[in-house]
Structure formats: C-alpha cells, structure tokens
Amino acid sequence: MASPVQESSASSSEAEPIRAIPVRHYGRWIAGVVILFVAFIVIHSVVTNPNLEWGVVGSYLFDDRIIRGLENTLILTAISMVIGVVGGIIIAVMRLSPNPLVSGVAGIYIWLFRGTPLITQLLFWNYLGAAYGRLGIGIPFGPTFASSSTNDLINLFTASLLGLGLNEAAYMAEIVRGGIASVDSGQLEAAGALGMKRTTTLRRIILPQAMRVIIPPTGNETIAMLKTTSLVVVIGYFELMVAVQQIYAQNYKIIPLLIVAAVWYLFFTSILTLIQMQIEKRFSRGSTYATADKQKWGSRMLGFRFGSAGSGRGASQ
Hints:
The protein is mainly alpha-helical. It has helices at residues 4-15, 26-48, 54-60, 64-95, 100-115, 118-126, 150-153, 156-181, 185-193, 198-228, 240-251, 254-283, 288-292, 297-301, 313-316; strands at residues 134-138, 144-149. The protein is built from 15 helices and two strands. The protein has a two-stranded antiparallel sheet. Mean pLDDT is 82; it is low at 306-317.
C-alpha cells in the first residue's frame, strides 16, 4: 500500500507539467532588423534611381533581338547539357572500368577539359580550321573517303556546342562517378552472383540508386550552364548577352540593357530551380533525408525558412 506522501508527490507531478522556456536569441532579432533596414535602403535606391531607367528596361524586355538571343541561349543550354550528361555517363563508366587503358583515357579526358579554361576551349574549337584546314573520314594513313572544310563543318553554333558540351561532360563524369561510388559495392557483387551482366547491373541496379546523389549537382550544373552560355560572346555567337551588347552599342543604354539580361537569367534560373526540386523529391522518395528535410521554394531559392522550426511533434509535447 502506497503512503500518503508518495500519493501526494505523484499527483503533484501529474498536475504540474514541465514548462520549457525557449531561449531568446536577441542577436538574431537585432541582425534581422539590421538586414531588413539595409534591404529597404537597397530596394529604395534601386527603384528610385533615375539612372537605371526602368522605362527603358521595360521597353526592351520583349524586344525581338532580346527574344531571339534568349531562344539561342535556351537551345544552347539544352543541347550542351544533353551532350554533357550523356558524355559524362560514358566517361564515368570508362573511368570505373577495370581495363587500365580505358580508365586512363577517361582520366586524361577529365584532366584535359577540367584543367583548361572554358574560354580557351571555345576559342580553340572556333579556330580549329587554322590547325586543320579540312576534316575527313577515311582509313588512317590511307585514302580519305569524304572530307570538307573545317570552317564549314564547325560554324559558330557548332563551336559553341563543342566547347560547352565537352567541357560539361568532364564535370558530369565526376558527378556520375561519385554517384555510382555511393552505392554499396555488395549490390554489384550480388548482381554478379545472379549472373547479371555488368551493363545490365549498371542500368537496372546501380544508376537508379545513384540518381539520388547525381540529381542535385546535375541541377546545379544545368543552372550554371544557362549562365555559362554567355561566354560564347568571345566567338561572337548570337545569344542573349550578344544581343544586349549589340543594342547598347547603338543607344549607349548600358545599365538598363544589362538589367534586361539579368531579369531573364533570374526568371529561367528560378524555373530551373523549381524543376530541380520536383525531380529531387521524386528520386528521394523513401529516403531518410527526404522526410527530415522538406524545404519550400523560398528556403531553396532565397535561403529563408518559413514557419516555425519547432512545429514538429516534439514541440507540441
């Protein structure tokens, strides 16, 4: 039989739940106020500055030359990423090959294209005709079946694709290789024990699991490629930045035209970010971090965290 003292202590412990007082972070509030004040000053200055000429920005935002340059930028981004992703997968598989010759060739490719500036590669492909006047198909050290002028085969568009796509393939190869390496080696051994071919194992078992690791940096590379296409200005291919430069070379409205380019880059970067989030969500279904880290678009794009950090089950108890 319990004593009266024990009963009273038990009833008091049940009647008085523990009240957890959250720690007040005054420094965060002060930093937030300072940031908001600085942001207000910057936004007010940008909006009211007459030198930015927002009327000019609006008038050229949908200009025909801007739209044509934007279309070329998007086409260049899409095709270059296809070349980069496909080439990266092939080079990554070669890099992981047990054949030292195949692995060595892939390693040299990655070393060469990652070790030289992209602008240098663009200029090299554009002026390849200076080193090789004609390109042909035939037997090495034998007859040539068909040939053509290098400058006819490699125009500005082709040079841009070769420079951007082959350079991207080197970076994607390392991304894919890291994704494949993240999959437990025991699954490869188990597939081999079941008699599956190496290519079938890679296609059906390894790559689907590696996609969780491959997708995020691939999305980042796509967003970076959208902006990297502006480097083809060095060879004169007509894209968004070239269109902007041609216009402000005529009317000297440099800052407003640069703002036009920035607005379009930000718009499509935001769209690609949202697409990347949906793809990541699809491939991360069932994983631990997918349920633990659910970010909204604002926190992903701007770094803001909306809602209460302690709104989970533990905070309500």
